[in-house]
Amino acid sequence: MAATTSVRNWTSRFGLPYERGPALPRLALEGERDNRMNDISPATPGPAIALSGINLSLGRGAARVHILKDIELHIGSGEAIALVGPSGSGKSTLLMVMAGLERPDSGSVVIAEENLGRLDEDGLARFRGRRVGIVFQSFHLIPTMTAHENVAVPLELAGNPDALDRAAHELAAVGLADRLGHYPAQLSGGEQQRVALARALAPNPAILVADEPTGNLDESTGQQVVDLLFAGHAARNTTLVLVTHDPVLAQRCDRVIRMRSGRLELHATRAPASA
Ligand SMILES: Nc1ncnc2c1ncn2[C@@H]1O[C@H](COP(=O)(O)OP(=O)(O)OP(=O)(O)O)[C@@H](O)[C@H]1O
Ligand SMILES: [Mg+2]
Asked: Closest ligand 1 atom to the C-alpha of 243?
């Protein structure tokens, strides 16, 4: 089938638009990755996300910035977390670390009981494809593919034999059953974000990370996307980490975690800390 072939060709050559790889050399790690993370096993099975001793600097020379500083964070399976804080405090960078798109200089990242520091780049890409759903403010859809094909890409990457059928089902779940053949340029912003959400949820990921997913949308369209995001999180028991500047949206989560200058300040909202 032509659509399947085009999805397969794309996924084998490029992966998803935000993936590192030959098509996206910005994220290459210059062969130094073997020593970049401590070799720490998950202490106990349980948390969906366990970050320990995370430090990360980016940039070169005078532009080098120490962005993440001594981050310790455990997020339980099925929790919804809001990550808030001033612009430049490191929220997006921390999300990239959780998603396995950025490796820290030190510390351990354990997601769904997988120590990401032990995976090579291919293993990491496979892990992301199966276990991590990502939604960005700016959608990151593949412009030359239809909505249907965009959602099928991660399913193909995960080896799902019914990728196109499943993709159609996921698009119907976000109210886009009648937009399967539309290209991103033929969709509104809200529709594009719903495609991106369907793509992120399609493989039933263990964690769903969303970076200001309503930042480019008007209020009512954003509300629609947020409702679908929370519905997807609840229906699949997917752990959700949501970066937002919207305090009302943050309050819909189980916990609000605040960042300031690369460090975490923890705030319990609905569920007070037991310790
Ligand atoms: N590749 C990079 N090289 C150097 N510095 C970087 C790089 N990426 C991010 N930074 C810096 O790291 C800091 C944190 O950036 P980040 O994008 O994580 O912030 P943020 O909390 O998501 O902000 P916002 O709310 O504006 O999206 C910023 O000061 C930024 O300039
Ligand atoms: Mg950001």
From this structure: 22
Ligand 1 proximity of 59 Cβ (cutoff 6 Å): yes
Strand ranges (DSSP E) for the chain? 49-58, 65-75, 80-84, 106-111, 114-115, 132-136, 207-211, 239-243, 255-260, 263-268
Going by C-beta distance under 8 Å and a sequence separation of 6 or more, which residues neighbour residue 15? 21, 23, 125, 129, 157
Tell me the residues surrounding ligand 2 (ion) with CB < 5 Å.
92
Report the DSSP beta bridge partners of residue 74: 50
**CA–CA distance, 128 with 116 (Å, rounded to integer):** 10
Q: How far apart are CA 74 and CA 76, in angstroms?
A: 7
Residue positions counted in the chain: 275
How confident is the model over 187-234, as pLDDT tens digits?
999 999 999 999 999 999 999 999 999 999 999 999 999 999 999 999
d(CA 231, CA 177): 18
> What pTM was estimated for this model as a whole?
0.85
Angle separating helix axes 147-157 and 189-201, nearest 10 degrees? 20
**Average pLDDT of span 81-100:** 97
Tens of pLDDT, residue by residue over 21-32, are 443 332 222 232
